[in-house]
Amino acid sequence: MSKQSLYAHLGAELQRLQQEGLYKRERYIESPQGPLIVVHGSTVINFCANNYLGLANDPQLVRACHEGLDSHGYGLSSVRFICGTQDIHKQLEKKIAQFFRKEDAILYISCFDANGGLFEPLLNDQDAILSDELNHASIIDGIRLCKAKRFRYKHNDMDDLRRVLQESQSCRYRLIFTDSVFSMDGDYANLPAICDLADEYQALVGIDDCHATGFCGATGRGAAEHLGVLDRIDIITSTLGKCLGGAAGGFTVGKAEVIDWLRNRSRPYLFSNAVPPPLVAASLKAFDLVEQSHSLRERVHQNAKIMRSGLEQAGFTLKPGNHPIIPVMLGEAALATKMAELLLAEGIYVIGFSYPVVPQGQARIRLQMSAAHTPEHIERALQAFIKVGRSLGVIS
Predict the structure, then answer these.
(1) Longest Cα separation, the chain
(2) Residues paired with 188 in a beta bridge
(3) Category of 285 on φ-ψ map: left (φ > 0), alpha (ψ -120 to 50) or beta
(4) What is the C-alpha R_g of the chain?
(5) What is the full DSSP assignment across 44-73?
(6) HSE-up of residue 25 (Cα within 13 Å, Cβ side)
C-alpha cells in the first residue's frame, strides 16, 4: 500500500476520535504555570496541574535556577558517564537518597525514563514482575522492555496479588511494582499489605511515587511514609517535575548495589543527556523547601478536603479518597470533553479524560488541588461546576 493510504487512514481515524470526543486537543497557556494562568487571552483558575505545593515558578526556585545557570551553565551536551556529571548532580543524588532514607539515588531526565530503565537491567527471563493492572504507562512500557515473566494482579486486590505470588514461586527474583498513588483515581496502593505479602513470599517491593513525593506523609517523603512503610520499600522511582517545582527530571532510589548497577546498565541513563544544571540547582532548593515547611502540605490537603466536600454536597459522583487528586466521574467521553469546554468558558481550567487514558465508560474530569489555591478560587470552581453540571444534566 502507498504512503498516501497511511496518511488517509490516520486522517480518518483522527476524524473519528474528534466525533467521539476522544481527540486530545492541546490548549495553549500564555503565562507561567500557577493557580491562575492565561488561556486564549483570558485569566482562568488552573485545577489540573501537578503543582501540588504551588512551587512551580516559586521565586526561590527561579532564583536557584538562575544561580545554577550562572555557576554551572545551560546544558552539558553529554551523558553522565562521559562528561555529563557535575558536582551538583552528585549533591542532588545524595540529597534524594537521604530524603528517602535509602543508600543511593540516580537521576534521569524524567521518571518515565527512570521506569523505562529500571526493570531490564535488574531482571531476566528467570525472574518475575508483579504489576497492578492500573499502573502508569511508563511502568507498563518499562516492563515490556524486560524479559522477566509478567504477572498482572487486579487493582489493589491483595487476594489476587497472593495468587500471582503463588503462581510465580518458581522464579528466581520477584519484584512487586505499583504506583503508590494512582494518578487517574487518586487512591493509594495498599502498601502495608503488599509489604506483608512480599515478606511472606520473599519478594521485593518497588513503587512509583510521582503523585506523592513532597506532599504526602508527615514530612513529605511520599506515600510510603504516609502509610508507615518507608523502610520496607526496596526501590522508589519518582519525579522532580510535579510537586518539586514542576520542571523536569526523575530519579530512582534504593540499595547502593541496585543504583550502581543501574549506572552501568540502565539505557535511558547511559544514552540520554544529563539533567540540565539549572534544573538540578532548582531541585536542590525544592527539597530544602519541602523539608523546611509543613504549612504547604497542610494547605493542599485542606484545600482538597474542602473541594471534595463541596462537590459531593452538590451531587457529583466522585472517586472516593483523601488525596489532592479528585476525579469527577462522568462516564461518557463526549460529556467529559463538553463539560471541560463549558467550565473553561466559566474561568475554570480542567481537562476531560477518556479512553485510552482511563478505561472505556469511565470518562472523568480530574481536579488536582494545589496549596496555591485560595478559598476564593475553590468557591468560584464549585459554583462553576454546579452551573455547568446542571446545564448538562450531570446533577439536578
Answers:
(1) 63
(2) 181
(3) alpha
(4) 22
(5) EEE-SSS-TTS-TT-HHHHHHHHHHHHHH-
(6) 15
102 DSSP assignment: -
Strands 174-179 vs 128-132: parallel, antiparallel or unpaired: parallel
Amino acid type, 95: K
Contact, 249 vs 108, CB < 8 A?
Answer: yes
Amino acid found at 64: A
Contacts of 90 (CB under 8 A, 6+ apart): none
Whether 202 and 127 have beta carbons less than 8 Å apart is answered as no
CA nearest to 297, candidates 213, 186, 236, 183: 213
pTM over 0.85: yes
User: Which residues participate in catalysis according to the annotation?
Assistant: 183, 211, 242
**Exposure on the CB side of residue 371, measured as CA atoms within 13 A:** 20
Contacts of 309 (CB under 8 A, 6+ apart): none
Calpha distance 317→335 (Å, rounded) = 14
Residues 6+ apart with CB under 8 A from 98: none
Distance CA 39, CA 21 (A): 21
- Residue 304, all three cell numbers: 482538597
* Contact indicator for 104, 256 with CB cutoff of 8 Å: yes
Q: Are strands 204-208 and 174-179 parallel, antiparallel or unpaired?
A: parallel
Alpha-carbon gap, residue 230 to 221, rounded angstroms: 8
391 pairs with which residues across the strands?
none
DSSP string, 239-302: ESSSSSSSS--EEEEE-HHHHHHHHHH-HHHHSSBPPPHHHHHHHHHHHHHHHH-SHHHHHHHH
In tens, the pLDDT along 260-319 reads: 999 999 999 999 999 999 999 999 999 999 999 899 999 999 999 999 999 999 999 999
> For 162-184, what is each residue's pLDDT tens digit?
999 999 999 999 999 999 999 99
Closest by CA position to 118, among listed 58, 160, 127, 354: 127
The whole-angstrom separation of Cα 51 and Cα 215 is 10
Residue with cell 493557580: 35
Identify whether the C-beta of residue 347 lies closer than 8 Å to the C-beta of residue 341: no
Helix and strand tally (H, E) in the chain? 15, 13
CA dist., res. 350 & res. 354, Å (int): 13
Nearest partner of 389 among 324, 351, 325, 340, judged by Cα = 340
